[in-house]
Amino acid sequence: MPFSLLLAAVIVAIELTRRRFGQIDFLIPVSALMFLCFVVAPVMLPVYQANDLGAWNWIFERGIEGWRNCVSILLAGVLYSLAVWVYLNTPASLLIRKTPRLGSTSATRLVTIAALLLVIGLVAIGLFAEQRGGLVIAVTEAAIFKTSEESLGSLAFAIKLSPVATVSSFIFIHLSGAQRTRFGRILFFALFTVALVVSLLGLFLLGGRVSLIFYLLTFVLGELAYRQARIRLIPSLLTFSFFILPVILFGKSSLRLFSDDFSWSEIIDDFVDSPTTIVRLFVLEFSFPWINVANYIALTPEQISFRWFQDVPLGVIYLLPKLLLGIQLPPPINVIYDEVINAPVPTDIVSFGYRDWE
Predict the structure, then answer these.
(1) Could you tell me the sign of the dihedral formed by the alpha carbons of 177, 183, 186, 191, in that order?
(2) pTM of whole model > 0.85?
(3) What is the pLDDT of residues 156-193, one digit of tens each?
(4) Do 164 and 117 contact (CB within 8 A), yes or no?
(5) How far is Cα 336 from Cα 197, in angstroms, rounded to an integer?
(6) Which of 211, 8, 222 is nearest to 99 (CA)?
């Protein structure tokens, strides 16, 4: 806990005193995530140590108060400080110059690009749905694709291309706001609506909870960054409460939203009977980076060997269909980690980076 409180003080001090590059810049979400994962989680998690958390009990199997957990927070603080130093010492002119601007591309070219990406997304979803036996089955069994190691069809890999439709939605909403005629605004907003539905469907079928959250947040960040809108408290809270928080809290259950296993009444009853469940689930979801890094420190190199960045190309290769490669790939770090701790735990980007840094 002392290291968490020290990191909290560092984060707060930096955010109160640093220069800013607008309402939302790179460091704001970084600081927020660091605060949640390495301050809130370590401080709150011991409260639930005596509770039966079911599938979450693996968190406490190796203890959460040892030196490895303190080192995990210390490493996070050092890396955060380095990121802050690099960012704040980068000339503002360079940051602005590296910011992509849609205005430099003609509207015709943007429409062509957006339409092409939307078609790719639609075809990808169509192929995947055909392999699964129909769109209804694909949606109701989205959780199976997320966790299954079995082949779901020779063309099921096509669903991995569906996220390209998200780019088309960004382009269409930009074009809608840039139109001077009412017809133009309506036309591009209709195209945006189609792209939005396709994007959400593709991300849902992929089981990408984090991707889904960041996709929705991108619209908010775009409104703030490109249109210079002001942050409004009530709409921000409503957006977070109804679209982002449920995805975080329900976890993998959110992938069963349209299946018979998902029961709104049971979920509502659980939250009504114990409102603190929301806080507990929130803390558990953001505890992964802290716990994973601590576990890696304990498991390396006796149970998990040094990776030497091999998971970076492996991650790219695993995106390709197995039929195209025709070879047996070595298991990535998340598979090895799951087997060692005997729990299906995501290797988040923080612990993934630490793992391959060794």
Answers:
(1) negative
(2) no
(3) 677 888 889 999 999 998 888 888 888 989 999 999 99
(4) yes
(5) 35
(6) 222
